[in-house]
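Consider the tokenized backbone below.
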């Protein structure tokens, strides 16, 4: 067992850090408060090889491991928390599911623009009546000529304001076995964006309505029976989500640590008060424990997909740790931490959302309990 990064990983981290300091440090605070996607950052990252890290070289990616992608996202976040979303979109989210299961036609059609930072892809799972109970989704795919007609509504979709294509979970037939997925272009007739809304994080989202949208057969990603595969790919998204939680918690921690060594009250540095030292000790223990769980899940995935159990444990723990640490860091910084002068309040708001997004902490704990007892616990009432 080795708890050190390899020489290659350390070198990669250094190069991402140098890139981030040079291109992302300036403007990090302004970027965090803009709801728009940072396209300039996406294009820079594409040139730097930070999009498609885990995608095959034949598909235009870098052929790296999940661990490489985790190193990239946490390093970028340590300099510019908002820019970490670009690493997420270009490596961990539906782009990875497309890379994993997409046909040559689908990859040729979409990956070039996605990997050049010109476009993003969203994943539409959640519906008004299907949140945690995602298998209750109702968006239907009905055969029509050479393809399908899609009808339904998706909510809370990240990047829905500007995504070029949506990887939508749809129902080809009844039950869990009837679920699959299709790629829907935003420009397709019948795709309609509803009233825009904003998350507590400042990110914008809008309802996505599919009114009899025609999807040709070649745009079906996974036919009925594809739900398990879809979720296996989604575990990568969860690793990116966990990485950002931890990284933003760490960002806030580092900022509070520096402040505690600078700010004086009662004639002493904040760092000299035991009441605050113990807060820092608790924060550090949470961060280190979360880091080990995250790296275990990522390292064990190697070039494949991470295990459901290790991912659930890592995400639930990192989500909690990230939020708790960022929140404590804010407390240590007093009114300054609560103010938009600093990015600490932003880290708290972002970390709060990840406790819900991508499988809430409660749902992940249900999954962990199933592993513990080696049986499934259906959540439906009788
Ligand atoms: C920032 C953000 C980004 C998101 N991005 C996307 C996206 O890109 N694409 C997408 O499809 N969706 C997205 N979502 C939606 C997200 O997947 C859902 O919010 C999530 O699955 C929970 O669904 P819900 O909000 O409807 O809550 P509900 O399912 O209504 O749950 C409400 C509460 O009850 C708890 N709960 C529910 N069932 C159980 C149970 N069986 N046991 C214990 N507790 C339970 C939940 O944990 C939660 O605390 C995003 C959400 C957020 C906050």
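A designed sequence for it:
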């Amino acid at each position: 067992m080795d708890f050190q990064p390899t020489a290659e990983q350390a070198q990669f981290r250094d190069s991402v850090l140098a890139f981030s300091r040079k291109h992302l440090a300036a403007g990090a605070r302004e970027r965090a408060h803009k709801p728009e996607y940072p396209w300039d950052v996406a294009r820079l990252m594409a040139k730097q090889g930070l999009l498609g890290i885990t995608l095959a070289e034949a598909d235009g990616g870098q052929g790296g491991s999940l661990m490489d992608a985790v190193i990239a996202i946490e390093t970028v976040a340590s300099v510019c928390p908002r820019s970490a979303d670009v690493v997420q979109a270009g490596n961990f989210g539906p782009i990875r599911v497309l890379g994993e299961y997409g046909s040559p036609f689908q990859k040729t059609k979409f990956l070039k623009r996605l990997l050049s930072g010109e476009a993003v892809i969203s994943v539409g799972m959640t519906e008004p009546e299907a949140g945690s109970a995602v298998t209750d989704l109702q968006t239907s795919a009905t055969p029509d000529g050479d393809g399908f007609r899609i009808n339904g509504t998706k909510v809370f979709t990240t990047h829905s304001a500007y995504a070029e294509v949506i990887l939508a979970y749809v129902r080809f037939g009844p039950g869990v076995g009837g679920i699959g997925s299709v790629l829907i272009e935003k420009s397709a007739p019948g795709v309609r964006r509803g009233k825009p809304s904003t998350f507590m994080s400042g990110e914008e989202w809008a309802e996505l309505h599919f009114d009899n949208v025609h999807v040709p057969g070649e745009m079906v990603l996974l036919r009925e029976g594809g739900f398990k595969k879809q979720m296996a790919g989604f575990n990568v998204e969860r690793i990116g989500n966990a990485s950002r939680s931890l990284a933003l918690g760490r960002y806030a921690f580092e900022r509070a640590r520096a402040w505690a060594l600078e700010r004086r009250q009662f004639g002493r540095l904040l760092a000299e008060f035991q009441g605050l030292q113990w807060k820092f000790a608790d924060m550090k223990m949470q961060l280190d424990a979360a880091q080990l769980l995250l790296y275990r899940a990522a390292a064990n995935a190697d070039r494949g997909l991470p295990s459901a159990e290790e991912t659930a444990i890592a995400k639930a723990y990192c989500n909690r740790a990230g939020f708790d640490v960022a929140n404590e860091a804010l407390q240590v910084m007093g009114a300054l931490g609560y103010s938009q002068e600093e990015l600490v309040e932003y880290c708290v708001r972002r970390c709060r959302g990840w406790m819900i997004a991508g499988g809430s902490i409660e749902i992940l704990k249900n999954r962990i309990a199933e592993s513990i007892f080696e049986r499934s616990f259906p959540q439906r009432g009788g």
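The two ends are 47 Å apart (CA to CA).
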